Amino acid sequence: MFDIAEELKKLPKTPGVYMHKDSLGEVIYVGKAVNLRNRVSSYFRKTSQADPKVRAMVSNIAEFEYISCATEMEALLLECNLIKKYMPRYNILLKDDKSYPFIEVTTAEAYPRVFSTRRLLRDGNRYFGPYSDAGAVRRILGMIDEMYMFKKCRQQEFRKGVRPCLNYFIGKCPGVCTGEADREKYAAEISEVIDILSGRDSAVMARLRSDMEKASDEMRYEDAARFRDYMKSLKTLGETQRATMVRERDADVLVPVITQKTGVVARYKVEGGKMSGREITYIRSDSSGASMPDSEKERKTLGADMLSSFIKQYYPELSILPREIILPMHIEDEELLEAYLDNVNTSNAEGKTDVLHKTRFIVPERGEKKAVLKMAMDDAIKLAGSLDEKAEREAERRDALKKAIAGLIEYASSISGSAPLLIPDDDDREYRVEAYDISNFNGLDTVGGMVVYEGRKPVKSDYRKFKVRTAEGDDYGSLREVIYRRLKRARKGDEGFSTYPDIMFIDGGLGQVHAVKAVVDAFRIAIPVVGLAKDDAHRTRAIVFDDGREIDLKDDRLLFSYCSNIQEEVHRFAITYMSGVKGKKMIKSALEDIPGIGPKRRGELLAKFGSIKAIKNATYEELMEVEGMNSKAAESVLEFFAGSEK
Question: What is the mean pLDDT of the chain?
């Protein structure tokens, strides 16, 4: 038994971090202290429990832990990391963990990869950005992919004789796993990409121009055209970089906006002394159910807490910090937070003294900065009204959808004579919907897709794929197999399958519903099943029940929008999986049937030509240029494809 009074006496009077836990051992609050004993003891004094939030939290504290730190700065760093790790419900948290995308080059790896990420880590890799447009990042990576061939997989060590991946066979990977990649060439190309992403592309442009001219002089006109296209891509890439990379700015203005229903931090960007944009970050407050405070003093205290939490969680994720952060009020530990951001700036600078600067907090009382702050606060007042209106509309839509899904569950359950399991109106939980679709190619490569929604939100971590084993080309049989495997794994308690849905949506009509219902009934599980039928234009037309009743969706915009979105998503998920299965099989089978062409030659052919079509159209001379090819093998390829056209 944890004796709080006795444990309080054991606390040291040193800096550190404390964690309050509930009766289940879950961390519900993380805080830092200059004096651990004084700070933790203060929660259990009646004078500290006037705040409803504190009172609710203390009533849930079953035990606490602490970690002593040498300095207050060390405690602050640890507090930030633990909040990020545990996401405690009584801490003020950023609701949406969204940030600008970066391009990461994994220079800490022997064969680096190049990809997009939203996480900025101190891991020895190189990060470029942030970029304000995720689409631009995809275009930049696409252009790099055209010009260079880098490893895509995360694997670092490879066994001898390992089968190369699909990217290798289609000429998109240099074959690190096969030992064929040229280490020096790979490193040189990574160095070029780093130069390009750093804005130093003149040397790469000069090299491409030289390669183009040389190819032209040697009458290798296709190669010359390729180098010319690379130069165009490089120019476009540079323009995209300049247009979308987030630049250093003069200042950020942070304003807490507290309404009756929500709390946000509005961040206004100041460039060249002028306001240049606004971003809203929703704050997830505590789970005590307490409404936002009414008194001015309480709102001011909450506002300062929101600003402090925002600064700790938001700015360490950026690679470029503003020189000034303008605030409407002073916050706790300002000097300590400034020192903390100095550490972030120093880490981001990576020894480049030209970008090294300090970030300072300013609470202006007069002058231009006061005018900018007033402008931001005036805008925030207008924003507060619109946020409450938006929250009300969102709540109405959520409640209406919840009621509509409850109606589907209630009717579908009544058909089978089972009692519907409905969520009470005052419960914040959302109904869990699972949707299924079957996809195949001319009756072959049949797969099933399962997508999961909670309310209107897709739960992508719970999506599942099934390769059909026993019922190729049989839509009903395929559905029966997929549902059987899903429910069997749930019954076994397999991770990722143990949570049952409140209702199943099946892509199809009455036949599909009957096929699935038979399996569900065999497991003696009360899960309602409905079908989503389409019209001749492949649009979602109706919801189909087990007794043949249909709900026409043309007059129900809410259900139509919801069901059609789910149906499109499960179709996309299933067909994408099927296309991948089919593509791998086609590439493998098409070349495996050619006499005299083994795995190594297949890889070399795909590396040079990139596709089956290009190999099919290749001349004898072009085939002979492939490493490892001899005249007999080249003739075998030509004869094989010539015969396939007869």
Answer: 82
Burial class (CB within 10 angstroms; exposed 0-12, middle 13-18, buried 19+) of 449: buried
Tokens of 467: 């390769």
Give me the pLDDT at residue 25, please.
Answer: 78
Task: Looking at the structure, give the CATH architecture of the domain made up of residues 432-579.
Answer: 2-Layer Sandwich (3.30)
Three-class SS state of 93: strand
What are the tokens at 33?
């202290």
**What's the whole-number mean pLDDT along residues 95-112?**
77
Which part of the chain has CATH 3.30.420.340?
Answer: 432-579
Q: Which residues contact 261 (CB under 8 A, 6 or more apart)?
A: 292, 387, 388, 391, 392
Q: Distance (Å, rounded) from C-alpha 39 to C-alpha 58?
A: 13
Helix or strand (DSSP H, E) at 166: helix 166-169
User: What is the CA 305 to chain-centroid distance, rounded?
Assistant: 28
Q: How far apart are CA 333 and CA 505, in angstroms?
A: 52
CATH of domain 251-388: 3.30.420
**Other Cβ atoms within 10 Å of 543 Cβ, number:** 22
Span 431-483, pLDDT tens digits? 999 999 998 776 677 889 999 999 888 999 999 999 888 876 788 999 999 99
The secondary element (H helix, E strand) that includes residue 388 is helix 367-416
Question: 193-209 b/e with 16+ CB inside 10 Å = b?
Answer: bbebbeeebeebeeebe
Residue 411 has pLDDT above 90, yes or no: yes
Measured CA to CA in angstroms, residue 303 lies from 175, 289, 417 at distances of 55, 18, 53
Per-residue confidence (pLDDT) for residue 404, from 0 to 100: 93
Q: Are 329 and 305 in contact (CB under 8 A)?
A: no
Q: What is the DSSP letter of 97?
A: -
At residue 627, φ and ψ (nearest 5 deg) are -60, 130
Q: Which amino acid is at 524?
A: R
Residues of the chain with CATH 1.10.150.20: 593-644
Closest CA to 171 of 482, 521, 616, 587: 587
- pLDDT at residue 350 is higher than 60: no
Strands 550-552 and 540-544 come out as antiparallel
| Contact (Cβ atoms closer than 8 angstroms) between residue 295 and residue 324 | no
Q: Which CATH architecture has domain 4-91?
A: 3-Layer(aba) Sandwich (3.40)
Amino acid at 49: Q
**pTM of the predicted model, to two decimals?**
0.53
The token duo for 448 is 């099933």
Q: Tell me the sheet residues that pair with 116.
A: 103
CATH number listed for the domain at residues 593-644 = 1.10.150.20
The string over 370-387, giving b where at least 16 C-beta atoms fall within 10 Å of a residue's C-beta and e elsewhere, is eebbeebeebbeebbeeb
Angle at 86 between CA 83 and CA 89, to 5 degrees: 85
DSSP helix/strand/coil, 322: coil
- Closest to 105 in 3D by CA, of 136, 127, 129: 127
Q: How far apart are CA 620 and CA 161, in angstroms?
A: 30
β 324-326/360-362 pair status: parallel
Helix pair angle (367-416, 557-592), 10° resolution? 90
Return phi, psi of residue 5, to 5°: -60, -45
